[in-house]
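Students often ask why we bother encoding 3D structure as a string. The short answer is that it lets us treat folding as translation between two languages. Here is a chain of 253 residues written in the first language.
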Amino acid sequence: MTTIKHLKPMLLAIIILISTSMQAQDAKEIVKKADDKMQGEESSISTMSMTIKRPTYERNLAFKNWTKGTQYAMTLVTAPAQEKGQTFLKRDREMWNWNPRISRMIKLPPSMMSQGWMGSDYTNDDALKKSSIVEDYNHTLIGEEKIDEQDCYHIQLIPTEEAAVVWGKVMMWITKDEYLQMKVEYYDEDEFLVKTELAHNITTIGGRILPSQFEIIPADKPNQRTIINIENIEFNVPINDNFFSQQSMKRIR
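And here it is in the second language, the structure alphabet:
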């Protein structure tokens, strides 16, 4: 009888440990499925437009993206004319900017990752997916919630100790049926909300059901926002690693 009494707490601890491990794995798997669906399991090529809305003005940009896994990304600004030709490159943990107007290549330091890309509410880290929401964070399934009448998993992401990331915490709402990121909240290291990203206009694009529009709203400036529209996207297109180079930055159109 004494042995059974001692076994009960041990069994309970094992059950809790297994349950916690399964929940973490499930949450990570959900986030990975959502990320793969949006970024492509291997690669993607997309064209997008961006509208930066401010109280006194509105600014429009167009750009093209190439991505390959989490290691490589290239972004080419195609409009307006005064910004056309600017290129951003990410290779592993490094990021560069090529400005053809001044023929200058700049390596962007980690301190610039949280700054707005091209003056928008979209950060440099967002633009080139510098951090991996799958590998750089620990994932916890918080519960379930409806977002725009969609049944969603509510997942908390906390950075791992060794991760060099911009955010102190990320909260995601991912649909159960199609693994769409309907809502994402980004928090700083003190857990203050910095911005919210909302997905709109769910449609078939690139052969997949995806939101074609994303709206980014800063928490401290609710009267401004950035809206990104996906015009076209192709997934898992063969792209050579050598494409993601400083030489390519100067040549691509």
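Translate back mentally: The CA atoms of residues 118 and 225 lie 13 Å apart. Keep this in mind for the problem set.
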